[in-house]
Amino acid sequence: FVLSLLSLQSAVKSFMMAILGIMLATVGMDNISGSPRFTLGYSAFFGGIEFVPLLMGVFGVAEVIRAFLHPVTGPASMISFRVRDLYPNREELRRSVKPILRGSVLGFLVGLIPGPAAVIASFSSYGLERKLSRPPEGFGNGAVEGVAGPESANNSACGGGMVPLLALGLPFSPPTAVLISGLILHNVQPGPLLMQQKPDLFWGIVGSMYVGNVILFILNLPLVGVFASIARVRQSILMPLVLILCMVGAYAVNNSVFDVWVMMIAGLIGFLLERRGYEPAPLVLGLVLGNMMESSLRRSMVIFEGSWTGFFQRPISATVLILTILVFLSPLLLRSLRGAHSRIWGADSKD
Q: FRET label pair with 149: which of 7, 12, 30, 45, CA 20 to 30 Å apart?
């Protein structure tokens, strides 16, 4: 489903990038057997390829390379604005209503499943709004739908992740895992009985999420002008700063220069692939979900005693597989239906 949303031109290219991300996730120590895989004899690969350096590479470094090859000339003073003009006007608010609703629902549903919900929800919402926009060329040039939808999805994914945590005691993301650890340290067991046994704590957690959003709104509203003033910085100054920050961030993950090299190589490869129409977002999702997918697959194979037919003999797994295939093929089916509709409409017009 996510791949079908992230693909602007070709679902096949998105699928290929996701496969590449899953392959990169297999580098390092095997979680089950403990044996090294695809390390090429280098101990630096034993820990696997980190998510943060690769993310900074395909998005940050690739953008720096693009800006270096296609520099924007002209003085920075040509960009002028007033602080009050930075707030959305009535037309932008009207255009944001549907993306906010779609992003909120999508983010909440993504938050209910295991994995990095905020990342998946943001990318999925952005891809969805880009597909629904007319014309889609406005995305990447300041389309308000490309901000309202993903931000709403990112925020609602946090709320969706709290549902399995408080209702079932299951943390589906790193932040909820940290939260459940804190609750257990205070002898609080999340689960179905939490609302009955400690209603004050339950509703306190729910209320804190509302209060947190209000505080963020109050803090960020006066700082809009400060954030937007970055647009005044010359590209020749901004891009080196971006590259330095990316290098510092990649190094800080494990205090390793190896991660910096991973980031730089990922940036170069991501730039070249994007020039050929391969978008980097599916690669990142494949890397994030690769270990989880592999562990689940191997556990399932143990349950099915090594037989692949078990996935088709169980009603739930068979239904999920069928839905996955249909969603993956949906862009091709929709394109065929549009083509048939255009031919029929054209024939009727001639008659």
A: 12
